[in-house]
């Protein structure tokens, strides 16, 4: 993976645009196209979750149907949000090119509607979900830190739900031990999949994986939106994974296939450079990348000159309380 060097002037005090849209849940409804979608709300088994999106303003901040406690634990609301402009213009999505500005520049024509994602393999009820289905799992807003293995990070308000919700729908069998994810393969629309020069020569489609117990942890999240709007292509439309305690490359974008298996699945960066990128990829300031330190990170805020700051990296990206138990018997130096 490429790493961007930074100047000393990039590391000073942070400043972030205040995002009023984040507080406006009705805007989310509008942007995701839910206003007037009476049939969708009525048919949703999670209709209560959408109540806060009704016309009754007294409900505006109601989080009924959400696991308020989990939400609080998961959030990083004491940290300044990275500005929306930066979240949607500084990206890693090699299917659209290698530099940070390429995904936005080259993905405008990417078609993410209609979409299908299948959940297959070691499940009792294999299912295929379309976009309407994907919006019916009860949306929550969660502020997560995203820590890239390249040692930069952001704080981002995503919209979606715990991955466990869609996995449970497919009813994993007792043989299921891992979950494998696959990005759509669409070389016509993804120049990086057509050309080694454009796509960095990694093997496509991009694939990722988690242990089943990691995948069922409430923090593992499927995002369908960001900053109160449907995901733009460069951030992984129409759905992507977020595993906030792991390096960002685990958070696979534009997912079309989820397969439960009894074997640890291959993962893109591990295939490309196994001594640099492991299957686990837990954020760990004590285990350096062979070519750079992981002890600290550049926190991207507005991205303006001198706006970003250098901060220490936290174990499991600050989510140790929620996930450390998953690795109680694992040597994290060996299983990096
Ligand atoms: N998913 C796919 N399919 N292709 C990619 O190149 N890059 C990963 C991850 N998911 C990537 C991907 C990496 S390295 C990071 S850091 C995050 O996406 C970046 O997500 P963002 O662009 O929304 O910040």
What secondary-structure arrangement, pairings included, does this model have?
Elements (H helix, E strand, L loop, with lengths): L19 H4 L1 H7 L6 H6 L3 H4 L17 H7 L9 H4 L14 H5 L9 E6 L5 E4 H4 L5 E8 L4 E11 H8 L7 E6 L7 H4 L1 H4 L7 E5 H5 L4 E6 L2 E2 L9 E3 L12 E7 L6 H5 L23 E4 L9 E4 L7 H4 L13
Parallel strand pairs: 1-10, 4-11
Antiparallel strand pairs: 1-2, 3-4, 4-7, 5-6, 5-10, 7-8, 7-9, 11-12
Bound molecules: ligand MTE.
What does this structure look like?
This protein has about 325 residues and is of the alpha+beta class. The chain has one domain (about 70-325): Sulfite Oxidase, Chain A, domain 2, CATH 3.90.420. About 20% of the residues lie in helices and about 20% in strands. It contains 14 helices and 12 strands. Strands 3, 4, 7, 8, 9, 11 and 12 form a 7-stranded mixed sheet that branches. A 5-stranded mixed sheet has the order 2-1-10-5-6. Residues about 1-30 and about 35-75 have low confidence and may be disordered. The structure holds ligand MTE. Ligand MTE binds near residues 91, 92, 95 and 206. Ligand MTE binds near residues 91, 93, 94 and 206.
Features:
disordered N terminus; single chain; globular; alpha+beta; binds ligand MTE; five-stranded mixed β-sheet; 12 strands; Sulfite Oxidase, Chain A, domain 2; seven-stranded mixed β-sheet; 336 residues
